[in-house]
């Protein structure tokens, strides 16, 4: 279960956010993006032992997914596991506005933010990094993929000079390991230096890769 200790659930403009303020200022901002059917509570399981200097915000995605969860795109009647760029881009644009408004409200003066997402939230993290590279510093892709339509941006090398952490399970039945490896090729074509952790798990992050994730975000 996620550890929600020292976090606050707030409503900010049109968003529901779970927020963890830093131990000290100034602080870097870390955006946490949940997967399909998740919510603002889902990503905190990955944040244990991350630097206390992070100001973390986890927004609830804008579209109901059915049941109690949410999605970063309207729920389709087909291609359920294969969201495309055009379906995710409206939410990506809304997230950039959220970052601008939240940083202004909280007095956070940071030109770039870090982002970490799981599954569909990882796909959204890729969208943010490719479309708004000037706004994103570090990217954590957990059990994710490159959404269709984003590959054409790779030739412009939007991620040149950036490092991207990618972790995936070889036994993942929701997003195949081959799809994850193909996504790494696109990230490298886009200029990214990929830090990759692969382990024999399903649609989750292994203990070893969670340790590597923490090391990636430490500097």
Radius of gyration: 16 Å
Structural class: alpha/beta
CATH architecture level-2 label? 3-Layer(aba) Sandwich
Number of helices: 4
| Cross-sheet strand order for the largest sheet | 1-2-4-3-7-8-9-10
Low-confidence stretches: none
Overall pLDDT metric: 94
Q: Shape from CA axes? A: globular
**Strand fraction:** 25-35%
CATH topology: Rossmann fold
Can you characterise this structure?
It is built from 4 helices and 10 strands. The chain has helices at 85-106, 120-131, 177-189, 207-216; strands at 8-12, 15-20, 28-33, 54-59, 63-66, 69-71, 113-118, 136-142, 163-169, 193-199. It starts with 7 loop residues before the first strand and ends with a helix. An 8-stranded mixed β-sheet has the order 1-2-4-3-7-8-9-10, sandwiched between helices. It has a two-stranded antiparallel sheet with strand order 5-6. The model has no long low-confidence stretch (mean pLDDT 94). The protein has one domain (8-216): Alpha/Beta hydrolase fold, catalytic domain (Rossmann fold). The protein is of the alpha/beta class. α2 (120-131) links the parallel β7 and β8 (136-142). The chain is globular, with a radius of gyration of 16 Å.
Considering the chains and any ligands shown, give keywords for the structure.
alpha/beta; Rossmann fold; 26% strand
Secondary-structure map:
Blueprint: E1 8-12, E2 15-20, E3 28-33, E4 54-59, E5 63-66, E6 69-71, H1 85-106, E7 113-118, H2 120-131, E8 136-142, E9 163-169, H3 177-189, E10 193-199, H4 207-216
Parallel strand pairs: 3-4, 3-7, 7-8, 8-9, 9-10
Antiparallel strand pairs: 1-2, 2-4, 5-6
